[in-house]
What does this fold into?
Amino acid sequence: MTIASGGNDPARGSNEASISGHCFGDPSFEPKILAILCNWCTYSAADAAGSAHSVYPPNLHIVRVMCSGRVDPSLILKALRGGMDGVLICGCHPGDCHYINGNHKTAFRIPMVKRVVSQYGIAPERIRLEWISAAEANRFVAVAKEMTEQIRDLGPVSRTIR
Ligand code: FES
It folds into this structure.
């Protein structure tokens, strides 16, 4: 079996290499994911999911911010270099930001941050940006599950940093 991810693309500079015949997906590995959620949308969705007793992986370590635009790129780098295996940033849908264009700034910054982490040998897939409104609790749960599985497949970040 070949693990295929953007982290395998030499053009991106990641050293999370493709290994034929092996699977990084260790079912016993529990990834640590920093989830930075906008107060006005996704944090409420996560809260609603909890209130509805929806089950989502406990791997997410949630931090609430007032706007996704407040997420400094250096914080993402620090989290990944500090042992978080993935970082999920969630904000209001385009046009719904309470601070007019905070999420536009986030949409601009995240691809840049992905390019930077590639230079450190970290697969850019470890960073994910999603727009999830307060009414989308089910979507938040789905994203949390998807990302946890994706990071589980990538393995711990500590062994990938150059
Ligand atoms: S207020 Fe939610 S992304 Fe700006």
